Amino acid sequence: MTFAIGTLFLLLFIAVGIPVGFAMGLAGVVSMLMLVPINSLLALMTTVVHGTLTNYVMLTVPMFVLMAEFLGSGGVAEDLMLSCNRLLRKVHGGMAIAAVLAGAVLASASGSSTASAASITRAAYPAMRKAGYAASIAIGTISVSGTLAIMIPPSVAFVLYGLMTDTSIGQLFLAGIVPGVLTALGYVLTILFMMKVKPELIDKAKQKMVLEQPESKGKVWPIVLLIVLVLGCLYSGVATPTEISALGAFGALIISVFSRRMSRKNFTTAVGNTLRTTAMILTIIFCAHLFGYFISFTKVTDSMLLWITNHGLSPSWVVVLTVLLYILLGMVMDQAAIIILTAPITAPLMVGLGYSPIWWGVIMIKTAEIGLVSPPMGLNVFVAAAAAKADLREAFYGVMPFVITELVLLSILVSFPQLSLIMAY
Fold first, then answer.
1. Positions in the chain whose pLDDT score sits under 70
2. No. of H helices and E strands in the chain?
3. Positions of E strands within 211-298
4. How far apart are CA 423 and CA 61, in angstroms?
């Protein structure tokens, strides 16, 4: 009953327009007044805020965001797009596939999906339209290409899940490799299928005109060197994820400076965007911790496990129902807020049912990935459409085939947990 009252407070605060982070904090504080003395609550609030903001692992968040911003300012996505397109320019739909490959490579050095989507849009959309691609397929491809950054390590989403559930961030990064590669492959197969079924998505006359033009070249070796350095240090154990994030941000700055694309305005914008994003995430985290303490006091997870046992509900059905709930939440809520708010509840529940917290982290991130492109709140679609100044309805129409692919891939990952755990253990 107490948990229900606290949840009603949370929903009420969100309904009246209070930002999700503050709503969680307020709901947690108000609800805990029913359970603990006010002096104890004030001490707990002080401890939570101080402990969250001084946590060494928290440095991972701003550093990965800063790395993505520096790479975007340095025009790395443009170079990647040119290089990938050079390999695939004669394939029907090759430029769309090149956008996916560029997104996958950029994801290996960037933990931010929205920053990745914005960078790829600036690099790919004008070229795809010039080559005769319909606006819907161009924006749809670019939007899903940006989501690869949430799954392929390093990923800010995995960092958030690890922080909220005390799960190894290094193991989570390793677990994201196979699902990330499968996702990119699924996007490529979707593009090939669409080109086969609806070849009119590309104007052949414009495509032929572009193919007759001289090839453009982009320098791809700096970003490849950065990826090798970051992932090599991560998987060899030479550095911690926090140290690697700082190394990656510094490397991205060096690349942008030496490419002569890092102006003072770009640098200021990158740092400003990082500060805003970091402040938002950290606020949500410590407010979610307050609400999390309320949840732990109510022992709702133990009650849920007892209810499942008494009603004979199988663990598989619990997973399916929870995944469906996450898909629905992803359509109407911010993905970071979903992870921070719900991971402390669902992760212990899944562990209690005998599942790995690493595997569940991958499933949660995959549902967040789907939410980034699902209407009506698909953030990546909004970002890509805004950057390209394209019609939002066309953008969501173009992304729907990829959403279907994502649901198929999610079903595979749920059915075969070993795909997510093969690299982590």
1. 1-3, 20, 57, 74-90, 109-112, 203-220, 235, 296, 300-305, 309, 332
2. 22, 0
3. none
4. 23
pTM of the full predicted structure? 0.76
Whole-number pLDDT of residue 381: 84
Closest to 164 measured CA to CA, from 58, 285, 337: 285
- State the pLDDT at residue 212: 47
d(CA 115, CA 69): 7
**CA separation for the pair 65, 328 (Å, rounded):** 27
pLDDT tens-place string over residues 344-355: 888 888 988 889
Residue 215 is predicted with a pLDDT of: 52
Residue 408's CB: how many other CB atoms inside 10 A? 12
In order of 241, 320, 415, the CA distances from 181 in angstroms are: 21, 23, 17
Q: 180 in helix, strand or coil? A: helix
What is the reported pLDDT for 349? 86
Note whether 120 and 145 are within 8 A (CB): yes
Place of tokens 């928290």: 58
289: amino acid identity, one letter = H
Instruction: Compute the distance between CA of residue 179 and CA of residue 217 in angstroms, rounded to an integer.
Output: 30
Q: What is the pLDDT of residues 46-56, one digit of tens each?
A: 777 777 777 77
Selection from 269, 256, 349, 247 nearest residue 302 by Cα: 349
Residue indicated by tokens 């807020």: 337
* Region class of 102: left (phi > 0), else alpha (psi between -120 and 50), else beta: alpha
DSSP letters of 126-176? HHHHHTTB-HHHHHHHHHHHHHHHHHSSS-HHHHHHHHHHT--HHHHHHHT
Please check whether residue 204 is in contact with residue 123, taking contact to mean a CB–CB distance below 8 angstroms: no
How is residue 12 written in tokens?
Answer: 């009420």
CA distance 251 to 128: 30
